[in-house]
Amino acid sequence: MLKPIPILIAAAALAGCAGVTTAPSPPPPTTPAQRTAAAEALQVERQWLGQWFRDTPVKIAQRGDGAVSVEVPREFSFDAGKASVKPALAAVLDKVAESLRRVPQAQVALVAAPDDAEVATALATQRAERIRDHLRSRGIAASRLGRPSPAATASVQLRLTAAPPAP
Fold first, then answer.
1. Can you spell out the DSSP letters for 146-167?
2. Dist CA 10 CA 50 (whole Å)
3. What's the rounded Cα separation, in Å, for the pair 78 and 89?
4. Which of 12, 27, 65, 167 sits 20 to 30 Å CA-CA off 55?
5. What 3-state class would DSSP assign to 55?
6. Taking the chain (167 residues) in consecutive chunks of 10 residues, what is each chunk's mean pLDDT?
């Protein structure tokens, strides 16, 4: 059986660190045809991301509303008491950024990070902000990213939608 951490680190190496310029985000889909096209594109991205992270602890799922959820367990995301993104989470974020570049009408409506304790503190929000920073460093416009928030679970939570993130 393959170990999840080496797979995630290998994915990080494959993702590369090439500089990417931030392109302006396109307007969100407004017509029924645009919304259908965006939903279909998100379904393709769910499958693509699912193939990358098959047999790892990363969970990729499509919700009933068409949004794609990405969950990465805390132990692969952050060291205890720290807000720095670990290499395994960086690999996942790099693939999410690639997916967002492939589907320019997609947004990350939810950017949530867990805390180390049962009760969310400022650390959870700092971690979510580091996630946003990482995605922005990969060329994703801030306007396509939701506000950083504490996660309701012990995992990093991202939700890709075809609708703009909440202000």
1. PPEEE-SSSEEEEEEESSPPP-
2. 16
3. 8
4. 65
5. coil
6. 47 42 50 73 92 96 92 96 96 97 92 86 94 97 95 95 67
